[in-house]
């Protein structure tokens, strides 16, 4: 397992990830950091915990919308285990994507417990 230091909201976090996923994790952390900064610009600094919860909820809302769009697109196509969505992803790609998201969430939860 690799270790990556990511910076979110001007704080460094050590995150474990699979070997070869370091750059991907860094890009994800930059995305989260950007969202936190946008949120901070609107509501100000309300404390790290509350800010991270609010950002997590906003990101979860966006992800929920994407899942809804994917479900809608898949329901409009013939059913096949290897069908491809309008986004160019087949079911195997979606499973891999979901697995990666779950690993990232797990790593973030572990980091949160470590820093709490």
TrEMBL record:
Native source species: marine metagenome
Keywords assigned by UniProt, alphabetized: Cell cycle, Cell division, Cytoplasm, Septation
InterPro entries noted in UniProt: Cell_div_ZapA-like (IPR007838), Cell_div_ZapA-like_sf (IPR036192), Cell_div_ZapA_N (IPR042233)
Keyword Cell division listed: yes
Function noted in UniProt: Activator of cell division through the inhibition of FtsZ GTPase activity, therefore promoting FtsZ assembly into bundles of protofilaments necessary for the formation of the division Z ring. It is recruited early at mid-cell but it is not essential for cell division.
Name assigned to this protein: Cell division protein ZapA
An annotated GO cellular component: cell septum
Record's subunit section: Homodimer. Interacts with FtsZ.
Any one GO biological process: septin ring assembly
Region annotation Disordered: where it falls in the sequence: 70-90
UniProt subcellular location: Cytoplasm
């Amino acid at each position: 397992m690799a270790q990556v230091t990511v910076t979110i909201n001007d704080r460094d976090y050590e995150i474990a990830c699979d070997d070869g996923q370091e750059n991907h994790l860094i890009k994800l952390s930059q995305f989260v950091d950007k969202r936190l900064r946008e949120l901070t610009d609107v509501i100000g600094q309300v404390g790290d915990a509350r800010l991270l919860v609010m950002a997590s909820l906003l990101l979860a809302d966006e992800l929920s919308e994407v899942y809804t769009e994917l479900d809608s697109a898949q329901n409009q196509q013939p059913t096949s285990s290897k069908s491809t969505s309008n986004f160019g992803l087949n079911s195997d790609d979606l499973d891999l994507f979901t697995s990666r998201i779950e690993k990232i969430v797990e790593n973030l939860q572990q980091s949160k417990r470590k820093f709490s």
